[in-house]
Amino acid sequence: MATLSVGEPQEMEVDRRGESEESGDDETKRKSLNGEVDSLQAPSTVPEESPVDMDTITLDPDEEDVDLVHCRIGKIEGLEVLRKAKTISLRQNLIKHIENLDSLVSLRELDLYDNQIRKLENLQALTELENTEWPKKHHYQS
Fold it and tell me: Which phi and psi (to 5°) does residue 75 adopt?
């Protein structure tokens, strides 16, 4: 275990081998502990994920608990068939706008954590909604 005495500025090396690609943007990953960007480390060449078409996802109209986590969904659409759904999890997708949920009037729980949503909107029709999960890292406009 390393110890650090007070008053002695020291640099620490951080082992990032266990981090996933989703654990931060390139700029954050290249910053050293003192906040400076490491100019020797090249930016990641991992291609940006492209959204999938909702037509490629099969939905069961009788399902009450719908799990669409990490499906690379870019736009909320085609969920009208889920009229019986009580919970929908859309975590870890590429969604930018909350839309097309008006027909899901029996929905009680909606999980949109870890998406690209910047504004809470279009939830007025969801009168049964009790529990929601939103990213805490963004400031939302309502």
Answer: -145, 135
**Lateral strand order in the sheet of 109-111:** 65-67, 87-89, 109-111, 131-133
Tally helices (H) and strands (E) across the chain: 1, 4
- The per-residue pLDDT string of the chain (142 residues; one tens digit each, 9 = 90 and over) reads 443 334 444 444 545 455 444 545 444 444 444 455 555 555 555 567 788 888 889 999 999 999 999 999 999 999 999 999 999 999 999 999 999 999 999 999 999 999 999 998 999 999 999 977 766 554 444 4
| Three-class SS of 37-75 | ECCCCCCCCCCCCCCECHHHCCCCCCCCEEECCCCCECC
* Separation CA 74–CA 81 (nearest Å): 18
What does the block give as tokens for 79? 């969920």
pTM assigned to the model? 0.61
Query: In a 3-state reduction of DSSP, which class is residue 81?
Result: helix
According to DSSP, the residues that pair with 31 across neighbouring strands are 37
